[in-house]
Amino acid sequence: MTILYTLVARGSVVLAEYSGTQTNASTIARQILEKTPGNNDMNVSYSQDRYIFHVKRTDGLTVLCMADDVAGRRIPFAFLEDIHQRFVRTYGRAVLTAQAYGMNDEFSRVLSQQMEYYSNDPNADRINRLKSEMGQVRTVMIENIDKVLDRGDRLEVLVDKTATMQTNTLRFRKQTRRFRSAVWWRNVKLTIALILLILVIAYVVLAFVCHGLTLPTCI
Q1: What's the CA gap between 77 and 90, in Å, rounded?
Q2: What CA–CA distances, in Å, run from 76 to 66, 95, 117, 143, 166?
């Protein structure tokens, strides 16, 4: 399964959660909630070993999941968006005053079903790719979770580093294309030179042979 753990929370109050395997994801998820206070909307991802914790907060409601790092970001964030919409549609304003785990008995089943769908159904990725092309999946920063848990002020610096890395990547791609073009033209020139050389040699040989055939016969 690609998505292994999910929770829905209001601030640091967990309203529902589900884990598809034995893991300490719940403990780490609560640390993330404590270290990212406030109600500002956000899409962010935190790396931990070979797993990524993806967090989506909209209108004070946080949806978080842990997924394999090979899952990328499109599928997990489409999953989080889906869960957020289902949760708000199901509970409405009750979300604002609900007690801890107040929706867990009912909604944990929804989490389980949607985790299974987004992890294993190929239709999920096709739908998510379409949504991405329509601009509904935002750019997400990925950073190491240890840095966030120890020093919450590293977020801005890491965003800047991400932007720099993207710029360097584009520059590298342009340089690679120019290098390939230069190599191609060099190969074309060498091929033309080789053909001309072969033609010259063939001309000289033919001229020599023809000249030998026309020499006068001595008596």
Answers
A1: 20
A2: 8, 23, 11, 16, 22
Tokens of 97: 């005053």
* Segment 122-159, tens digit of pLDDT: 776 665 555 555 444 444 555 566 666 655 444 443 33
C-alpha distances out from residue 132 to 75, 113, 176, Å? 10, 23, 27
Amino acid in position 179: F
Q: Which parts of the chain fold into alpha helices (H)?
A: 25-35, 74-91, 104-120, 122-133, 145-150, 155-213
Please state the length of the chain.
Answer: 219
Q: What is the pLDDT of residues 46-95, one digit of tens each?
A: 988 788 999 999 989 999 999 988 888 888 999 999 999 999 999 999 99
Q: Phi/psi of residue 25, each to 5°?
A: -55, -35
Q: How far apart are the first and last CA of the chain?
A: 99
